[in-house]
Design brief:
binds fe (ii) ion, 9 helices, binds 2-oxoglutaric acid, alpha+beta, eight-stranded mixed sheet, single chain, about 375 residues, binds the ligand C=C1C[C@]23C[C@@]1(O)CC[C@H]2[C@@]12CCC[C@@](C)(C(=O)O1)[C@H]2[C@@H]3C(=O)O, four-stranded antiparallel sheet, Jelly Rolls
């Protein structure tokens, strides 16, 4: 009998190490923008320096406690792939604790943060954004990635106080997981999908064996924000991403492939974004939205992304009910780890590289606009 080993989420980059060293990552001390940070926007995306950044459009803001919230979610995901949510049930005090702990982490002196540096072939720990290798210039940000328990890294950062930070992270993960489950079922329900249609979501649809990654992002004050980029344009690989941003603007989403729309911070709101796996699962009906994060001269910005995905063994393919004569099968079956590995090579071209046929309906496949010209 042959046994196939399913790769773990934490092993995905063993074959694709990140070859940019983290040890020079100290943006706080820079008074002038070094040439290595003078951002070149990929041809496939509109300029981020454009003063005409769309002011007329705004990302939908949905009150989850309203009876028509499911309908609003369905519409927002079809047309934008992203929305902001309020009355989501996650305690505001927990969001505040998570924000303050994230600030505490990034405020540590650089050599101290490097004690928990991510290894070149690893996923967790402190370092540059993984996508750095796909851009010719560096991004004005630093990050910390958590998969499962952060205990080992937190013990290195805070030998005496690690347990309180582990507790906050654990509670945050629990709340985010439950919100993701709630939003996914509402979103799928709007497409006529029931729990029985999604066999890998477990018998009662509670995603017991799901996986998640928490990404803490910090964008220090930048001496020349019109020339620098915090996090380059990308889509997330998750099913769903829930993002908390502090009260500082920076997140922009790509609208109709031709303009950036700022996601204005709203106190207590969370940003919900479709990831590539939900795009595949819904056969392109809910598009994963390209986004980027810009920086500013006066305020330090932080964001906390919770990437929600299936278990390592779950096979994700377009749901049968969403494959019709007018919307033929667009994608093959993938697992999250297979897809992440592909993305580590092909980045923004991953989704189009696996696509089986062109979409026939008017459904917006935003990744057509996202393709990086190579
Ligand atoms: C599971 C993951 C999603 C992510 C890559 C990663 O392996 C761990 C970090 C995630 C992150 C955070 C910053 C932006 C992003 C594109 C990146 O470079 O690392 C995402 C990745 C993703 O969604 O593909
Ligand atoms: O900082 C932000 O607003 C965006 C972060 C993000 O896109 C990510 O972590 O994937
Ligand atoms: Fe993202």
């Amino acid at each position: 009998m042959t046994t196939t080993t399913i790769p773990k989420l934490t092993d995905i980059y063993k074959t694709h190490p990140l070859d940019i060293p983290t040890n020079k990552l100290n943006l706080d001390s820079l008074q002038q923008l070094p040439d290595t940070y003078d951002w070149i926007q990929p041809d496939a995306f509109p300029s981020f320096r454009d003063p005409n950044i769309s002011l007329s459009d705004s990302v939908p803001l949905i009150d989850l406690s309203l009876p028509n919230a499911p309908h609003l979610i369905g519409n927002a995901l079809k047309t934008w792939g992203v929305f902001q949510v309020i009355n989501h049930g996650v305690p505001i005090s927990l969001l505040n604790s998570m924000e303050s702990f994230t600030n505490t982490l990034f405020d540590l002196p650089s050599p101290h943060k490097l004690k928990a540096a991510r290894t070149p072939d690893g996923v967790t720990g402190y370092g540059l954004p993984r996508i750095s290798t796909f851009f010719p210039k560096r991004m004005w940000s630093e990050g910390f990635t958590i998969v499962g328990s952060p205990l080992e890294h937190f013990q290195k950062l805070w030998p005496n106080e690690y347990s309180k930070y582990c507790d906050i992270t654990e509670e945050y993960s629990r709340e985010m997981k439950s919100l993701c489950g709630r939003v996914i079922w509402l979103a799928l329900g709007e497409l006529g999908i029931t729990r029985e249609d999604v066999n890998w979501a477990e018998a009662n649809g509670d995603f017991k064996t799901s996986n998640a990654v928490i990404q803490l992002n910090s964008y220090p004050v930048c001496p020349d924000p019109d020339r620098a980029m915090g996090l380059g344009a990308h889509t997330d690989t998750s099913l769903l991403t829930i993002l908390y941003q502090n009260n500082t603007r920076g997140l922009q989403v790509l609208r109709e492939g031709n303009r950036w729309v700022m996601v204005e911070p709203v106190t207590g709101a969370l940003v919900v974004q479709v990831g590539d796996l939900l795009h595949i699962l819904t056969n392109g009906l809910y598009p994963s939205s390209a986004h980027q994060a810009v920086v500013n001269q006066n305020r330090k910005r932080i964001s906390i992304a919770y990437f929600f995905g299936p278990s390592e063994s779950a096979e994700i393919s377009p749901l049968n009910k969403l494959v019709t004569p007018t919307q033929p099968l667009l994608y093959p079956t993938v697992t999250w780890t297979e897809y992440l590995r592909k993305k580590a090579q092909l980045f923004n071209n991953t989704l189009s590289s696996i696509r089986l046929s062109a979409p026939l309906t008017g459904a917006l496949d935003i990744n057509d606009h996202n393709q990086v010209k190579v």
